[in-house]
Amino acid sequence: MMNKQLLAFATATLFLALPARAEKFANQFVEFELPPQWTCSLEGAEWVCQGTAEAKKRDAIIVLAAKLKGDQDSIDQYLSYLKAAKTYTSIQGKPVKSQVKTAESKNLNNQVWVDSLHLESEIPGFYTRYLATVKQDIGVLVTYSVNKDKYAQYLKDFDNMVRTLRVYRKEGGLNVAPQKANLFEIPQAVTQGTVFPTVNPQGGSTEAPKVQKAAGDNSMMLILIVVGVLAFIIWKRKQRGG
Q: Confidence band (pLDDT; 50, 70, 90) for 44?
């Protein structure tokens, strides 16, 4: 009887210890793994992804956009654009100039992308990571914006999204902008409107965030305990059988 109770406890604890499974998002031109409790919706011509928890909606946002390829759409031109600081006027009427942290081209799942990180290029007080590429006759842009004070908290999830990012060109009609549109002009309705209200975080470091190695957590400890319990049960049964 005791062994059955231990086995039931070990099984239940194992399931509780396992992290929530990421869900795959896919639209007409990209796919990637979303963090748990995130969802995406079509807002005009762009796809917008946010956490479903109300308290976290102001922390981070993903915007996906595509356009028909024009003369200004190439990997080299995207890289040149993202190597330069962006300037704009905030919703409060203040001039803002972004800080370019990184800008490079890289291969992700057999596709060359431009990967760039800016501070305050879209929203004051936020980091934005840009992934831009060209696939056949379309240009594709994925942006990940996160409050600079919450960057470390979302780093693992964002890195996983980039790692699983794939681009394709589906046949048929696409929800994309025309050739003459600027792929990098994200509508203010997305970054400053009702979808993502303007946030003006106070304080916090503006230094470029550093990639940190994942440390062991409580989930791993629980898994080790469960494995130990299961091993003990199996050993006891073998002893009795012997």
A: confident
